[in-house]
Amino acid sequence: MPTAQEKEEKVSIAIEIAVKLGLLFLVIYISYLIAKPFLGIIIWAIIIAVALQPVVKMLESRFGNRKRVIIALTVTVVAALAIPTYMLSDTVIETGQKAATMLHEGNLNIPAPTEKVKEWPLIGEKSYALWKSASENLGQTLAPFKSEIKAAAKSVFSLIGSGLSTILFFIAAMIIAAFFLLGAKSGERFYKTIMKRLLGEKGDEWANLSVLTIRSVVTGVLGVAVIQAFFAFIGLALMHVPFAIVWAFAIMFLTIIQLPALIIIGPIIAWVFAQGSGTPEIIFTVYMLIVGASDGVLKPMLMGRGVDIPMLVILIGAIGGMMLMGMIGLFIGAVIFALAYKLFELWIAEVKEGEPEKSL
């Protein structure tokens, strides 16, 4: 039987442990609250640095001087993001102001539809009647839809504002990523040390797995964005759409930030049909709709390449992570789900190793 003194000592030790754990939790929690406003941009900067590390190594082996390579790459990426964004925002604002002024003054004229519009399957007659009414008296035609138009315009401007703020966020993250790239070796050692501390002997393997998973998702996201923008530019250029290169860049940005390219493709198709409604316009519409929907096919093809994880696991992790945490979940979800899959695979392997072989 423990004596009263021993009981008091145990209670004292338990209280001391509880106090220390409480203080430790408090320090960790307060530290989290302090770092919380910066966590998003820091995580994005880490993802960008991990994705660009192979590019930096390749350029460093060719041109030397890692610091200059990183600075040049950062300036190039920032310019590639900022210049088209400025051009697009300036064009959108100017066009929006002109359209609003013309609509207010009643000077916005819609060209009359041709008889070929009636031949469109299913919607031909109704489209012709609505289009003809708009060409004769736009204000009267739009009057019944006034509240819907205001709501749609509000949503469009909200999306544009969100897109611009996202691009500015990425520019800031790219600049921070440049500092991470400059100290890549120490950062890599630090990350592997943490993984070893958490996972023991498997630390290095799982650190490499998480890095490869991030690069795989980046390849899927950026690869799809570049492919969509390229094929969209071909269609826009062939139809002589003004500012084709700007719209192609805009489509690429929307795809990168996981917004549907049809946000831009839809109004462009409407503008093309306003110029004519013949066979070229119909072919252009079908082509651009295919381009806009191609990400659903291309993402599964590009995600998961170079990683010893089934593509479906990467894809489910990326899509589920995005639904749970937004765009950053594309990467965090894919990494966590890949590590979970590896844990499950390791658990199954240990069970199989422990089973005695059965003779046939």
CA radius of gyration is 28 Å
Structural class computed from helices and strand pairing: mainly alpha
Give the percentage of residues in beta strands: under 5%
Distance between the termini: 57 Å
Please outline the major beta sheet: none
Number of strands: 0
User: What would the average pLDDT be, to the nearest integer?
Assistant: 77
- Can you give the helix content as a percent range? over 70%
Q: Tell me the number of helical segments per DSSP (H or I, 4 or more residues long).
A: 13
Shape: elongated
Task: Sketch the topology as an H/E string, one letter per element.
Answer: HHHHHHHHHHHHH
Uncertain segments are: none
Would you mind describing this structure in some detail?
It is a single chain. The chain has 360 residues and is mainly alpha-helical. It contains 13 helices and no strands. It is elongated.
Can you summarize this structure?
The protein is 83% helix and 0% strand. The protein is mainly alpha-helical and 360 residues long. It has a domain at 31-138 and 150-182.
Tell me the layout of helices and strands:
Elements: H1 4-63, H2 66-105, H3 124-136, H4 138-142, H5 146-182, H6 184-199, H7 203-238, H8 244-256, H9 262-275, H10 279-293, H11 295-302, H12 311-325, H13 329-354
Helix pairs in contact: 1-2, 1-5, 2-5, 2-8, 6-7, 7-8, 7-10, 7-11, 7-13, 8-9, 9-10, 12-13
